[in-house]
Amino acid sequence: MKIATKNILLLVAVVLLAVLPLLFVNAEFGGADGAAEEMIKTIQPSYEPWFSSLLEPPAETESMLFALQAAIGAGFIGYVIGLFRGKASKSKPQ
């Protein structure tokens, strides 16, 4: 199998893995914080939080900050991988 064919099949698989759950899963995508809060209220109804947030940004801003954090992390990981591969290719005799 050619490399181009493999790449196309991998791309199609990634797109399907991203799109199919959105189309076929009829559920609310909630965060872990909300689920944890519900579980704590179920186990210990008298629980009171120690503190509350000073600033709670709108949902759009919160999503943007999360995406920015993910992009910075991915960029850092890509830089480190490229750095190590570059060092490895320099040390190989040609």
From TrEMBL:
<keyword id="KW-0169">Cobalamin biosynthesis</keyword>
<comment type="subunit">
    <text>Forms an energy-coupling factor (ECF) transporter complex composed of an ATP-binding protein (A component, CbiO), a transmembrane protein (T component, CbiQ) and 2 possible substrate-capture proteins (S components, CbiM and CbiN) of unknown stoichimetry.</text>
</comment>
<keyword id="KW-0813">Transport</keyword>
<dbReference type="InterPro" id="IPR003705">
    <property type="entry name" value="CbiN"/>
</dbReference>
<protein>
    <recommendedName>
        <fullName>Cobalt transport protein CbiN</fullName>
    </recommendedName>
</protein>
<keyword id="KW-0171">Cobalt transport</keyword>
<keyword id="KW-1133">Transmembrane helix</keyword>
<dbReference type="Pfam" id="PF02553">
    <property type="entry name" value="CbiN"/>
</dbReference>
<feature type="transmembrane region" description="Helical">
    <location>
        <begin position="64"/>
        <end position="84"/>
    </location>
</feature>
<keyword id="KW-0472">Membrane</keyword>
<keyword id="KW-1003">Cell membrane</keyword>
<comment type="similarity">
    <text>Belongs to the CbiN family.</text>
</comment>
<comment type="pathway">
    <text>Cofactor biosynthesis; adenosylcobalamin biosynthesis.</text>
</comment>
<keyword id="KW-0812">Transmembrane</keyword>
<keyword id="KW-0406">Ion transport</keyword>
<keyword id="KW-0170">Cobalt</keyword>
<comment type="function">
    <text>Part of the energy-coupling factor (ECF) transporter complex CbiMNOQ involved in cobalt import.</text>
</comment>
